[in-house]
Amino acid sequence: MEFRVKDFMSKDIKSMLPDMNAKDALKMLLETGMSGLPIIDKDDNIIGVFTEKEVLKAILPAYIKAVGTFVYAEDSKAELRKIANLDKFLVKELMRREVSIIDENSSLAEASRIMLTKSERRILVVKDKKPVGIITRSDVVKGLAEKAGVAF
Fold first, then answer.
1. Count of CB atoms within 10 A of residue 107's CB?
2. Which of 22, 23, 51, 116 could disulfide-link to 89, CB 3.0 to 4.6 Å?
3. CATH of span 5-147
4. How confident is residue 58, by pLDDT bands cut at 50, 70 and 90?
5. What share of the chain is helix, strand, coil (3-state, %, to 5)?
6. pLDDT of residue 151
7. How far is CA 107 from CA 3, 37, 102, 135, in A?
8. In this structure, what are the phi and psi dihedrals at residue 90, rounded to the nearest 5 degrees?
């Protein structure tokens, strides 16, 4: 039996609207324990994703990626001020517009491939181009373990 994405995805999709305040969106992430949520417009179209990574990109200095592990000022007042001022931004201004999607009838192997090649933690699941679920890395690992007959 071939396991499909639809067999392991979560059907309860929590999402955000593009005009939501970024500070409220961050609060929603923290309260749900999710590291990211899809942005879905009023017509049920997927238009982006808002993640903790986008928040970090918004508050950390632009040069941080270039310097990597090089030491920079920790607890910078500028960074703290930026996170305090997230309410001045809308989700659509900070969201990532590139969103990985997968059809609900795709295999778990295809979901794994997307997650590994695109460094994704979650993939939005669609049916006829409309969101019907979300599958995470742990969902895929669980499905592959079940397929292999490994019980936890």
1. 14
2. 22
3. 3.10.580.10
4. confident
5. 40, 20, 35
6. 76
7. 6, 22, 9, 12
8. -100, 155
Token pair, residue 92, equals: 């659509």
Find, among 9, 34, 8, 18, the residue nearest to 131 by Cα: 9
Tokens 């309860």 appear where? 12
Single pTM value for the model:
0.80
Tokens at 115, concatenated: 């997650």
Residue 27 CA, distance from chain mean position? 15
State residue 59's pLDDT score.
Answer: 81
* Cα–Cα distance list, 44 to 17, 71, 95, 131 (Å): 10, 44, 17, 7
Structure confidence at residue 138 (pLDDT): 94
Q: How far apart, in Å, do the first and last CA atoms of the chain sit?
A: 20
